[in-house]
């Protein structure tokens, strides 16, 4: 089976700094890939390069066999690749339903505004926000705004969703809710990349884990193997801790 | 449906203004013509400035371009209406072409680039004497009609331009493009990620916001029979639409029209008594508006009357 | 030799342009406000110099400091009383506000002083300077030297004083500066005042070279815009580089295309530079 998303030697430099350093990664259909790494490891840059916000300095990104390395964000979105943001980005002066309808209209194939609004209600039902459909987006709590972004991404009818720190700032109960939601999205047959800080969360939901450190991919494999990887432990906790653990 | 109600309002307004020559004198017709011109300019600015949120100061560029195109073609023997249409089309094409170059700019940078457009065109109109008559200006053929008929004709012409701008706004509001512009206005980066082709949407909006000022410029030139660069590329032509939209409420459909009426009232009531302080009084209006009524006079009135505003529709 | 003369003229012009732009650039960079009033502040400075010379017999070079002080007061009050109230509003609002204030000030000047062009003719001009084959009027060179001196003075003020560091801190990060105890609204007012003072000083110097009229304010504002865009925003060296670049572009443009094209050229340069720099010159897309 061909990979859904493939990165081949992808690098991205900002000035002299390599935010991504020749990263190669394959993602199969139906996977839930946990993308982890310390702050500044290049996780968000990877999402930005895949979704067309930044263009790779070198290397190639393909989605369903199509080269998307140089496509602008809206073209990538229309191919079926959705994302959420680390810092939520709703349209503040639109209603919740209108926010989600935007995804349905411009990437989800809705024929007109009316059918996009209908599709939006469906996505809102999926994330349990249907009763707030007519509220202005700016009035939602953070946890609900994160669900709004999920609904908006779902309305795009994506085949791949990249979730950037979807749990940041949430409390334990809210995180459990969000995880249940992620599993339900996966059950719909949507492939997921989840960027996450909380190790417990990643281990609980991912089928595979990839670790970035200083822009390089230092580990990629089954969750239980990756967290025992010496280099990964070193990246997170420092070299000395890793050596002591091994002794 | 508020959509149907708005169309009915538009038709009603057009009908009332169209009937004006039957009852009104030439002075009132002149006011009506200026009102229609202001409304067309304000509605057009609202497309790029209100819907898309790009602070454009290019209205004078489009107005002047339309005026000169129409005037030059009429001097070359074209009939008025085709010359007028050519002016509107050229303004739209010009905006689309220039838009590709400056619409990636945000905030102040876009404002300045758009302001500079009118300055460049004004300088060109002054320099290219063989084409535009330079600083001497350009005379247009005077239609062979008696005065009242002429006043009525130009009222109807300008009303036609305003009605087109109003219809375009109504069509835009419910459309895919209108939705895209609202997304861009609120968060352009997020809009791109959701599949909005932001560059195309902004360029279209800029072109739409140019066509009607182009037409209005042509109608103005035909109406006054004489144009010169400082007149039709006047920076106040870029500022007044913005003031009218602020008066009526940003991003609403008929706010700009209400604002056009209010500004005209101010002009007639206040400026006739203070002719030399014309610009200063406009300045005072702007300062008061920005400091005390940032959501527009209409919104303030609504709140004063204790009714809940419906918000930006 | 012609090229040397043209280059020298461009440099003299450029020094004055830097002085015109540096205050505008400071206000834009620190407050994120486009001060449309800047052009009228310059013209006001020119009139004050004109009257100081004609009525009091005060030489323009001596009038610089009092005129700058007067405009500082005007600028400080404008920001403190008016602009600060909408400083957090969208770009459109502050831009529109200063536009409205400019209409008021400019119109008042037209009524008070008429739109006629007036000249400030010194009774004892400084004569002509010969540098090899290059000939330069002494007043112009002195004006340029003073313009550069003032620009350098502003730079020293921003670098070397506590007040200046506070202005720079607000430019870097307004919230962090507030947390560290900087009185941000006051620094806003000081910054706007400094911008106005520089405009006034530039106006005094320009009165020696150009005829004075309120109708010039738009022209000066356009120069300030262009210099900022050319040289980059909110830094004194940027204004200097941009000013000299514009002076040279205009001088050589006038040589090759004819002097009547100078204004058109500078606006074309403005649009071209804006169009070719993706994401504007601030280009804040870098951080993810």
TrEMBL record, chain A:
InterPro entries in the record: AAA+_ATPase, ABC_AA/LPS_Transport, ABC_transporter-like_ATP-bd, BCA_ABC_TP_C, P-loop_NTPase
Keyword Ribosomal protein: no
Highest taxon of source: Bacteria
Residue ranges annotated for the ABC transporter domain, each copy included: 5-239
Signal sequence coordinates: none
MF GO annotations: ATP binding; ATP hydrolysis activity
Keyword entries, A-Z: ATP-binding, Nucleotide-binding, Transport
Any one cellular-component term (Gene Ontology): plasma membrane
Stated name of the protein: ABC transporter ATP-binding protein
Originating organism: Falsiroseomonas bella
From TrEMBL, chain B:
UniProt keywords, alphabetically: Cell membrane, Membrane, Transmembrane, Transmembrane helix
Transmembrane segments: 6-24, 54-73, 80-105, 151-172, 203-223, 243-266, 273-293
InterPro entries found in the cross-reference section: ABC_transp_permease (IPR001851), LivM-like (IPR043428)
UniProt-annotated location(s): Cell membrane
Alphabetized GO MF terms: branched-chain amino acid transmembrane transporter activity
Record-level GO cellular component terms: plasma membrane
Record's bilayer topology term: Multi-pass membrane protein
Pfam family membership, one: BPD_transp_2
PANTHER family (alphabetical): HIGH-AFFINITY BRANCHED-CHAIN AMINO ACID TRANSPORT PROTEIN BRAE, HIGH-AFFINITY BRANCHED-CHAIN AMINO ACID TRANSPORT SYSTEM PERMEASE
Name this protein carries in UniProt: Branched-chain amino acid ABC transporter permease
Gene source species: Falsiroseomonas bella
TrEMBL record, chain C:
Gene Ontology cellular-component terms listed: plasma membrane
Topology with respect to the bilayer: Multi-pass membrane protein
Pfam families the record matches: BPD_transp_2
Superkingdom in the source lineage: Bacteria
Ranges annotated as spanning the membrane: 12-31, 51-74, 86-105, 141-158, 189-212, 224-249, 261-278
Subcellular location, principal: membrane
Location within or outside the cell: Cell membrane
GO biological process: amino acid transport
A GO molecular-function descriptor: transmembrane transporter activity
Key words, A-Z: Amino-acid transport, Cell membrane, Membrane, Transmembrane, Transmembrane helix, Transport
UniProt xrefs under PANTHER family: AMINO ACID ABC TRANSPORTER PERMEASE PROTEIN, BRANCHED-CHAIN AMINO ACID TRANSPORT SYSTEM PERMEASE PROTEIN LIVH
Homology family: Belongs to the binding-protein-dependent transport system permease family. LivHM subfamily.
Protein name: Branched-chain amino acid ABC transporter permease
């Amino acid at each position: 089976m061909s990979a859904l998303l493939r990165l081949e030697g992808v690098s991205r430099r900002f000035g002299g700094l390599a935010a991504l350093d020749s990263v190669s990664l394959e993602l199969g259909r139906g996977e839930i890939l946990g993308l982890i790494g310390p702050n500044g490891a290049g996780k968000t840059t990877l999402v930005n390069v895949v979704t067309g916000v930044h263009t790779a300095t070198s290397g190639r990104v393909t989605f369903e066999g199509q080269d998307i390395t140089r496509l602008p964000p809206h073209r990538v979105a229309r191919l079926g690749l959705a994302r959420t943001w680390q810092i939520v980005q709703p349209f503040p002066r639109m209603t919740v339903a209108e926010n989600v309808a935007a995804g349905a209209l411009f990437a989800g194939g809705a024929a007109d505004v009316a059918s996009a609004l209908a599709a939006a209600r469906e996505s809102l039902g999926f994330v349990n926000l249907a009763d707030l459909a007519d509220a202005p987006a700016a009035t939602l709590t953070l946890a609900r705004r994160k669900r709004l972004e999920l609904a908006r991404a779902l309305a795009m009818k994506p085949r791949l969703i990249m979730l950037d720190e979807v749990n940041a700032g949430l409390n334990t109960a809210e995180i459990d809710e969000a995880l249940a939601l992620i599993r339900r999205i996966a059950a719909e047959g949507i492939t997921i990349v989840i960027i996450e800080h909380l190790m417990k969360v990643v281990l609980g939901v991912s089928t595979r884990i990839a670790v970035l450190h200083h822009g390089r991919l230092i580990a990629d494999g089954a969750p239980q193997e990756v967290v025992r990887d010496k280099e990964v432990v070193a990246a997170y906790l420092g070299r000395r801790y890793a050596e002591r653990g091994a002794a | 449906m508020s959509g149907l109600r708005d169309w009915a309002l538009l038709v009603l307004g057009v009908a009332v203004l169209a009937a004006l020559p039957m009852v009104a004198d030439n002075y009132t017709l002149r006011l009506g013509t200026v009102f229609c011109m202001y409304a067309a300019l304000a509605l057009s600015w609202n497309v790029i400035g209100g819907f898309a949120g790009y602070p454009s100061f290019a209205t004078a560029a489009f107005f002047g371009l339309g005026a000169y195109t129409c005037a030059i073609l009429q001097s070359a023997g074209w009939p008025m209406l085709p010359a007028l249409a050519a002016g509107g089309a050229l303004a739209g094409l010009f905006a689309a072409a220039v838009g590709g170059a400056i619409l990636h700019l945000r905030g102040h940078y876009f404002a300045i680039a758009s302001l500079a457009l009118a300055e460049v065109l004004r300088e060109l109109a002054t320099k290219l004497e063989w084409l535009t008559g330079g600083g001497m200006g350009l005379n247009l053929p005077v239609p062979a009609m008696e005065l009242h008929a002429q006043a009525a004709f130009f009222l109807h012409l300008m009303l036609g331009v305003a009605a087109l701008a109003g219809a375009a706004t109504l069509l835009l509001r419910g459309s895919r493009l209108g939705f895209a512009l609202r997304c861009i206005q609120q968060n352009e980066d997020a809009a791109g990620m959701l599949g909005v082709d932001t560059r195309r949407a902004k360029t279209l909006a800029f072109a739409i916001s140019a066509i009607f000022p182009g037409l209005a410029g042509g109608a103005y030139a035909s109406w006054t029979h004489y144009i010169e660069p400082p007149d039709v590329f006047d920076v106040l032509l870029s500022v007044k639409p913005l003031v009218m939209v602020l008066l009526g409420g940003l991003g609403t459909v008929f706010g700009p029209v209400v604002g056009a009426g209010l500004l005209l009232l101010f002009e007639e009531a206040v400026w006739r008594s203070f002719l030399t302080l014309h610009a200063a009084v406009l300045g005072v209006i702007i300062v008061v508006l920005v400091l005390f009524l940032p959501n527009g006079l209409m919104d303030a009135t609504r709140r004063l009357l204790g009714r809940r505003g419906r918000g930006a529709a | 030799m012609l090229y040397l003369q043209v280059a020298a003229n461009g440099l003299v012009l450029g020094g004055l342009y830097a002085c015109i732009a540096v205050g505008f650039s400071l206000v834009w960079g620190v407050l994120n406000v486009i001060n449309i009033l800047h052009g009228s502040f310059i013209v006001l400075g020119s009139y004050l110099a004109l009257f100081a010379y004609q009525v009091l017999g005060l030489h323009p070079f001596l009038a610089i400091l009092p005129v700058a002080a007067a405009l500082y007061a005007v600028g400080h009050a404008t920001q403190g009383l008016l602009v600060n109230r909408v400083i957090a509003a969208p770009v459109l609002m502050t831009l529109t506000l200063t536009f409205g204030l400019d209409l008021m000030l400019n119109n008042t000047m037209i009524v008070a002083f008429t739109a006629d062009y007036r000249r400030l003719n010194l009774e004892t001009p400084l004569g002509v300077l010969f540098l090899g084959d290059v000939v330069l009027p002494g007043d112009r060179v002195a004006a340029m030297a003073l313009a550069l001196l003032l620009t350098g003075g502003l730079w020293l003020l921003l670098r070397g004083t506590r007040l200046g560091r506070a202005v720079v801190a607000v430019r870097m990060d307004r919230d962090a500066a507030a947390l560290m105890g900087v009185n941000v609204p006051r620094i806003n007012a000081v910054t706007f005042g400094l911008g106005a003072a520089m405009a006034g000083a530039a106006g005094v110097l320009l009165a020696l070279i150009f005829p004075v009229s309120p109708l010039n304010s738009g022209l000066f504002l356009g120069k300030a815009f262009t210099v900022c865009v050319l040289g980059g925003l909110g830094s004194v060296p940027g204004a200097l580089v941009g000013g000299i670049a514009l002076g040279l572009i205009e001088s050589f443009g006038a040589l090759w295309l004819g002097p009547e094209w100078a204004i058109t050229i500078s606006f074309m340069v403005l649009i071209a530079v804006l169009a070719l720099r993706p994401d504007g010159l601030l280009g804040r897309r870098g951080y993810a």
